[in-house]
Design a protein that fits this description.
- The chain is an alpha/beta fold.
- The chain has 2 domains: 119 residues, ATPase, nucleotide binding domain (Nucleotidyltransferase, domain 5, 2-Layer Sandwich), CATH 3.30.420.40; 103 residues, ATPase, nucleotide binding domain (Nucleotidyltransferase, domain 5, 2-Layer Sandwich), CATH 3.30.420.40.
- It is 30% helix and 22% strand.
- The strands form 3 sheets. It has a 5-stranded mixed β-sheet, with helices on both faces.
- The longest helix is centred in the last third of the chain and has 18 residues.
- The N and C termini lie far apart (56 Å).
Length: 276
């Protein structure tokens, strides 16, 4: 007597978001002044102050691109996003991080976001996220100027990957009668000049000739855009809604990741990393 072979088990296929109810995703930009988040299935971006708790007892757990209070950052994320997550869902999390944050920053941020129970955490440099939000042509070198509230970054992207980057602990939040916008502009021009001096290729010069991409709160000030263009002697183009560009770029990658069968990475997109 012979028996028919048992049918091979068929692996469950991943259903791309938004049809997969368990495929929750969060795009996150942790700024020194504002935290911005987008969750799959929602239309609006959560945009709130980066503070541990509202009211007079509030403290700032992130300062000038550095996480100075990891438990406080975790409490803030839990307060803002914890109640918005499905009870049994484990989100895919994509974080826009400072270009020069390094391993120390990624270790701290990974510890902080564990409160959200992510199944996978991916990081993307802020400049790369900004370029994605602007739908920039990454087949050519691109110069990204990101003027935030307390941190300004200048980044050169080539084929979508970071090839040079500079930053200064100065931003629009520092502007007052003693710190005019000219100080930020001087700092940006000096960083670009240093990149040009140390570049042994023509990538920085090529990117500058094509025009720089401007993001962050500084891009909302027309006088800053005009002054940078004049001082750099090159076109400077502001990203639409520049203050939310980083989180929108991360959201775009989140949607791409959900479309991938494994939803654990984004093949072929440079600059995406799993924090260690």
């Amino acid at each position: 007597m012979t028996t028919a072979p048992s049918p091979r088990p068929v692996a469950a296929r991943h259903r791309p978001w938004p049809w997969c109810r368990q495929c929750t995703g969060i795009a996150l930009d942790l700024g020194s002044a504002r935290t911005r988040a987008w969750m799959s299935g929602r239309r609006s971006i959560l945009d709130v102050p980066t503070v541990t708790a509202p009211g007079d007892s509030a403290t700032h757990p992130i300062q000038r691109g550095t996480i100075v209070d990891t438990p406080g950052t975790a409490r803030m994320l839990n307060r803002l996003l914890g109640h918005r997550l499905p009870r049994f869902g484990r989100p895919l999390l994509i974080l826009a991080t400072p270009v020069l944050g390094g391993l120390a920053y990624r270790a701290e941020v990974r510890t902080a976001v564990e409160v959200l129970r992510p199944r996978t955490v991916l990081t993307i440099p802020t400049a790369r996220a900004v370029a994605m939000a602007a739908d920039a042509d990454l087949t050519h070198p691109l110069l990204v100027l990101d003027i935030g509230a307390h941190l300004t970054e200048v980044t050169l992207l080539a084929d979508g990957a970071v090839t040079d980057a500079r930053h200064t602990a100065l931003g629009t939040g520092d502007l007052d009668g003693l710190t005019p916008p000219a100080r930020i502009i001087d700092a940006v021009v000096a960083m670009v000049a240093a990149m040009l001096d140390q570049d042994r290729t023509s990538q920085t010069l090529d990117a500058l000739r094509r025009g720089a991409l401007l993001a962050g709160g500084g891009a909302l000030q027309p006088d800053v855009t005009y002054a940078l263009s004049r001082r750099l002697r090159a076109p400077v183009r502001s990203v639409p809604a520049p203050h939310t560009a980083a989180v929108r770029g991360a959201a775009r990658l989140l949607r791409a990741a959900h479309a991938h069968p494994s939803a654990t990475g984004i093949p072929g997109i440079p600059g995406i990393t799993h924090p260690q």
